[in-house]
């Protein structure tokens, strides 16, 4: 079980490093081929675009893990620490509901791309392979939100014990 937890702990970071590396290589080849050899690699731009999409969504899961995702802190900062933790928990539940809707929608989009046999223009990759990263990324966001909510409940309980 600890192997699975270790894998889960580093999955997003490993994927982001790999995707960034592939993008850097593809873009280097594209620039080199265009300006040195005077021809363009047709698939490099498409690979980079797919990579940027995956980086954005898997990066958001990393941000949730580190509590660095976009959030408005002006209003919660006006309250006590205990109320702030309660608001964090409520915020996480709203965020989880949104992730569930996104998982559902992107899963359906992936199935539709698979059933219709869509392919990417330059690489000829089946479109569902690229799109399937979205429900997976949103699932990781959901998992990270559940983990963060568990951590928030623990912090809330610790604050309640010290206040009593």
Features:
5 helices; single chain; mainly alpha
**Parts with pLDDT < 50 across at least 5 consecutive residues:** none
Q: The biggest beta sheet, please?
A: none
Q: Could you tell me the number of beta strands?
A: 0
- CA-based shape: elongated
Which percent range describes the beta-strand content? under 5%
The helix/strand order is HHHHH
Mean pLDDT across the residues is 88
Q: Give the helix level as a range of percent.
A: over 70%
Distance between the termini: 37 Å
**Measured on Cα atoms, how large is the radius of gyration?**
20 Å
Structural class: mainly alpha
Number of helices: 5
Structure description:
There is one protein chain. This protein has 164 residues and is an all-alpha fold. Helices cover 79% and strands 0% of the residues. The longest helix has 36 residues, at 81-116. The mean pLDDT is 88.
